[in-house]
Amino acid sequence: MKSPIPDYLHHVLETARPNEGGAAADYIETLANADTSKMAICLSMVDGNVYSAGDDKIEFSIQSISKAFVYAIAIEDAGLDQVLSKIGVEPSGDRFNQLSLERNTNRPMNPMINAGAITAHSLVVSPTATLDQRTERILNALSRLAGRQLHVDEEVYQAELKDADRNMAIGYMLKAAGIITCDPQEAVRGYIRQCAINVNVQDLAMMSAVLANAGVHPVSNEQIIPQTSVRQVLSVMTTCGMYDAAGDWVSSVGFPAKSGVAGAIIGALPGQVGIATFSPKIDERGNSVRGVAMCQQLSREMGLHMMDASHVARSTVQTSVSTLVEGEHKTHNGSCKREVVVFKLRGAVRFPGAERLTRALARELGQPDPLDEGSGSHADACGIVFSFRDVFSLNFIARRLIHENIARLLKEGKVLVIIDPSEVLEWDKAKAKDGRHPKVVDNETEARDYIGGTGCQAVSQDPEW
Ligand code: GLU
């Protein structure tokens, strides 16, 4: 069967194509001569599967989209505190190349306008690094994100350098305000070089998918950007990524995004997908006219708005009961009904999923409450199993809550077995409270053998038991 997804992307492209609004950026000569008939769209899933349509191999300069990634690099190289002391996180409502600084602090308002981006660039490697060192660092980092070696488009670089008076003015303003300490011309030239790196929509979708995938590269599985930096970058993209159209964007499209004057837009929907569109004609705010239309359509038709409530938490815990027969286990006491209760979690478990497990444990394993029919139904179970076999990840609060539940059940003397072949629970023997540990195994058979004795059978409503 042929996947319908590329056909759908093609349909999105053709729906936007008749829109002739906007014009190619004219303040950089090479961009002014761009072929405005070119259009492309690409989605990269967080497992690295890529779908694209249109001119998906056409290269263009990354321009302002680089700002999001260079901000992440600056955080890595200088530390978040230092970056925050130099660059704010407030939307400015100004044009991208406004000569403006925040009142009182003198910081550029955010890293997505040129003043903030030039400052972020100056923090890459170190404030005393050379232009070449910073360019090499940025090119390597962006290439790693894209999954192929990228290059600077020298023609675009030279063209922009020729008309760089405004950005140079911003550089000198930053130096005078004590925000940058290096040579302003060097910082601006480096910033312009970073903007002149060539990419295509497939590169951009993959780079966005790294942001959507908590900083882990979907293909190489390497943690390229620390998770805390990803959160910082996506937050700033949400509030400041679309120049002064951020409010419009968040309400009508609703995923963190960044656009560039060459006509590309990236979007990153956490946990789901990286998106990239390209069409050179931009509106008066600097955003690609057809790109905005394509992102609006994708968001509407594919349910990609980040504020659309998810129902995932409602289905993450499943309880089932098995009765063990022919077990050789000698420790069963008289009151034991040879019953094993299995609590199975699924997916990427966060606080709501862990809370549902906690609620089920307290209700079903606790004492019966006459007002709550079904409560205490497994208070005498001879074994309790947590199955994390289908759990992709636990976030820190889910893990902490489940660890606490485990400690409490062990303290009550329960026999507890954890099926955790991928070690998502990260049970640390050295750190366990009171030296009590659950039995951690790889599969159902090992769990059954442990509770009921080797070779025991289970009669169950659950086919896996
Ligand atoms: N290099 C461009 C500039 O600084 C980037 C602008 C943009 O893409 O918004 O003017």
UniProtKB/TrEMBL annotation:
Top-level division of the source organism's lineage: Eukaryota
Reaction it catalyzes: L-glutamine + H2O = L-glutamate + NH4(+)
InterPro entries named among the record's database cross-references: Beta-lactam/transpept-like, Glutaminase, STAS_dom_sf
UniProt keyword terms in alphabetical order: Hydrolase
Keyword Hydrolase in annotation: yes
EC main group: hydrolase
Pfam families documented for this protein: Glutaminase (PF04960)
Gene3D superfamilies in UniProt: DD-peptidase/beta-lactamase superfamily (3.40.710.10), STAS domain (3.30.750.24)
GO function term, MF aspect, one: glutaminase activity
GO biological process: glutamate biosynthetic process; L-glutamine catabolic process
EC number annotated for this UniProt entry: 3.5.1.2
Quaternary structure (record): Homotetramer.
Membership in a protein family: Belongs to the glutaminase family.
Protein name: glutaminase
Organism of derivation: Aureobasidium pullulans (Black yeast)
